């Protein structure tokens, strides 16, 4: 797609722009590491500053801007960009949902369709796949939006994914989700899926603690049992900390 860039002032960094995606993609298993999540989210934020004409979405990412947004040195940023470019051509998002007669349907789509490396110049060019772009662009309903600045300081992909799940319900401040759906979104390892104690210790509690610290959000959560001894779902109540750096989401 040909992109016409909207000019922003020097006081309007990329981190002030929004990351937008369909709720399906929010709930999906995204298949990304932290560095890969950073790259695609930076591209998604840039979507907030461009106007669609015709063609295909392609994004130029420089090591300098990547380093600036995520507090890295330029060498580390360039190395991450090079590695992420290779991996994104293979990364798959997966969404499983009930189909007719109770049988599960699983849909898969790749993140990127092409990557160009400009060796010695410190930048790459990335294009989202045709199957991915409908989940990122021209969204009118059933989508989630948050500012990139709320994620740039996060050091865990679990924290980032929990933030996206919360932001789907930022108007109500209440996320209710089944354990199965939560584990799918988090891509929890089998040991955590089988043992809620491990899920709590390895994923939920560290993610909640990091979000409360980095994003100045107040979070209370509880595990819900619907009869019997098995925990079936989770509830997260959240709101901005009035004393924090981000007074609103």
Report on the architecture of this protein:
By secondary structure, the protein is α+β, with helices and mostly antiparallel strands. 34% of the residues lie in helices and 29% in strands. It has eight helices and twelve strands. It has helices spanning 23-27, 34-46, 63-70, 74-88, 157-167, 179-186, 190-194, 196-214, and strands at residues 3-5, 18-22, 50-52, 58-62, 92-98, 104-110, 112-118, 123-128, 143-147, 174-178, 217-225, 231-240. The strands form five sheets. The protein has a three-stranded antiparallel beta sheet. A three-stranded antiparallel beta sheet has the order 10-12-11. A two-stranded antiparallel ribbon has the order 1-3. It is globular, with a radius of gyration of 18 Å.
Largest sheet: 3 strands, antiparallel
The unreliable regions are: 1-11
Number of beta strands: 12
Q: Provide the helix percentage.
A: 25-40%
Question: Can you lay out the helices and strands and say which pair or pack?
Answer:
Elements: E1 3-5, E2 18-22, H1 23-27, H2 34-46, E3 50-52, E4 58-62, H3 63-70, H4 74-88, E5 92-98, E6 104-110, E7 112-118, E8 123-128, E9 143-147, H5 157-167, E10 174-178, H6 179-186, H7 190-194, H8 196-214, E11 217-225, E12 231-240
Antiparallel strand pairs: 1-3, 2-9, 4-8, 5-6, 7-8, 10-12, 11-12
Key terms:
alpha+beta; three-stranded antiparallel sheet; 34% helix; 249 residues
Briefly say what this structure is.
The chain is an alpha+beta fold and 249 residues long. It has 8 helices and 12 strands. Strand 5 (92-98) and strand 6 form a beta hairpin.
């Amino acid at each position: 797609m040909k992109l016409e860039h909207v000019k922003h002032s020097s006081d309007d960094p990329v981190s002030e722009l929004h990351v937008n995606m369909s709720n399906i993609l929010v709930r999906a298993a995204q298949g990304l590491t932290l560095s890969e999540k950073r790259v695609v989210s930076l591209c998604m934020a840039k979507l907030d500053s461009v106007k669609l004409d015709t063609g295909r979405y392609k994004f130029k990412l420089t090591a300098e801007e990547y380093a600036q947004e995520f507090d890295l040195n330029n060498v580390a940023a360039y190395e991450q960009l090079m590695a992420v470019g290779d991996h994104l051509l293979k990364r798959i998002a997966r969404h499983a949902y009930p189909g007719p007669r109770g049988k599960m349907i699983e849909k898969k789509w790749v993140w990127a369709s092409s990557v160009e490396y400009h060796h010695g110049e410190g930048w790459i060019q990335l294009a989202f796949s045709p199957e991915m772009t409908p989940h990122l662009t021209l969204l009118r309903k059933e989508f989630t939006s948050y500012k990139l600045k709320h994620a740039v300081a996060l050091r865990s992909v679990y924290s980032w994914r929990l933030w996206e799940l919360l932001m789907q319900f930022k108007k109500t401040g209440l996320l209710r989700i089944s354990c199965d759906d939560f584990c799918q979104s988090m891509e929890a390892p089998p040991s955590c899926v089988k043992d809620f104690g491990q899920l709590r210790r390895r994923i939920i509690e560290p993610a909640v603690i990091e979000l409360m610290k980095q994003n100045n959000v107040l979070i209370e959560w509880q595990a819900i049992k619907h009869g019997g001894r098995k925990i079936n779902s989770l509830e997260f109540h959240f709101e901005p900390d009035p004393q924090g750096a981000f007074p609103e989401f």
